[in-house]
Amino acid sequence: MADSSSSSTVHTNVSDVGSTRTDNVPVQVTTIQLNKENYLRWSAAITMGIAGRGCIAYVNGRKVEPVEGNIQPLILRKKTARDMWVILEHMYGQKKRKVRVYQLMRDVYSLRQGTRSVAEFYAALKSKWEDLDYHSDLTWKCPQDQMQYMTKEWENRVFLFLSGLNDDYENIRSQILNSDESFSIEDVYARVEAEE
Questions:
Q1: What is the pLDDT of residue 173?
Q2: CA 132 to CA 61: how far, in whole Å?
């Protein structure tokens, strides 16, 4: 684990990652380009890529290595990859939580299928929901309350998915909404996707 004085999300234990290394092999770790809005997704992708190459110790601070190459001005004077990682996390990963949650909620409620396939629309919603889940800071006093909340949250996600679909899916939407059964979001997606 990273030291307890840090709030970094990079906690991968080097022994948890296989010993296969691909040093000196030019491999793009992720196609996700970091911007002000996608730190969490970028961080997860980059962490998996770096850990898969056996180099996570440079990021989580277990190994210190001088930084070389052309580095952006915001992190240019940092001496280790760990320092750079922490700066990026503080800049984009934790800052303005309420603003980020508001933006995500606005995006989720306004998202429509449009010209996307059902799979692309569902993936876009799912990505936003995962970002929202990351920002959730609820502390539960009893498991029953948590279960009740999660059941309602998943039901809302079903409604958001169905309401964002194009009118072409009105029949399957009506069947799902008029059913006495409760469906998970995955079940609803599978039923709608089968109609495409």
A1: 95
A2: 28
- Cα 12 from Cα 56, distance rounded (Å): 7
SS (H, E, C) 134-187: HHCCCCCCCHHHHHHHHHHHHHHHHHHHHHHCCHHHHHHHHHHHHCCCCCCHHH
* Dihedral of alpha carbons 112, 94, 138, 45, sign: positive
Largest separation between any pair of C-alpha atoms in the chain: 62
3-state secondary structure of 79: coil
- pLDDT means over runs of 10, the chain (196 residues): 44 44 55 80 82 74 54 63 75 71 92 95 92 80 86 93 96 94 92 91
Q: Which DSSP category does 38 fall into?
A: -
Contact of 161 with 130, CB cutoff 8 Å: no
* End-to-end CA, the chain: 45
Alpha-carbon distance of 160 to 119, in angstroms, equals 15
3-state class of 80 per DSSP? coil
Do residues 65 and 56 touch, judged by C-beta distance below 8 A? no
What phi and psi values does residue 98 have, to the nearest 5 degrees? -60, -40
> Which tokens is 195 given?
């109609």
